[in-house]
Amino acid sequence: MSNALPPLHEGHAPITLQQLFREALYAFEEWDEEVTEPIVMFEGRLVPIRAVFEAMRECTDIVPNNIVSAVTERLTKPWEGEGPLDTMTFSTAARVMGVLVRKRLLAVNNDVDVVAAAVAAKAQAAEKADR
User: Fold this and answer.
1) How is 72-124 classified by DSSP, letter by letter?
2) Burial of 40 (0-12, 13-18, 19+ CB in 10 A)
3) At a CB cut-off of 8 Å and minimum separation 6, what does 11 contact?
4) Residue 40 pairs with which residues in a beta bridge?
5) What is the pLDDT of residue 127?
6) How far apart are the first and last CA of the chain?
7) Residues near 88 by Cβ (< 8 Å), separated by ≥ 6?
8) pLDDT exceeding 70 applies to what percent of the chain?
9) How crowded is residue 104: how many other Cβ atoms within 10 Å of its Cβ?
10) Number of H-type helices and E-type strands within the chain
């Protein structure tokens, strides 16, 4: 899926990919408790936000302050980098967001599994009661 996105050039992302990262971050912020992962549009194609974050994992460009804030607000521990916050790279932000997406998907899938197990148990109980 990430081959549908523009490649990095010597660690630098084209502005279109940086803008897509911002859109993916906003989509994550608006992600309710739905089962499906949010998607963004790129050149007429639907792209899961996970693919956007994955595409930026090796990007050495510095993240704008508003994106730094949006990422660090989601951390459970305070951000401690080698330098001040304004030197966070897209690579770091993408890795953080990738982990957050995986955690959310895991939590949602576990909830779905729990609900499915409860429904199955109820059906089995009803089946046994009918015998």
Assistant:
1) HTT-SS----SS-GGG-BHHHHHHHHHHHHHHHHHHHHHHHHHHHHHHHHHHH
2) buried
3) 58, 59, 60, 61
4) 47
5) 58
6) 50
7) 62, 63, 68, 71, 72, 79, 81
8) 71
9) 17
10) 4, 2
Residue with tokens 């007429």: 44
Q: How far apart are CA 23 and CA 17, in angstroms?
A: 10
Closest C-alpha to 86, from 104, 98, 72: 72
CA distance 16 to 105: 26
Confidence grade of residue 58 (pLDDT, cut at 50, 70, 90): very high
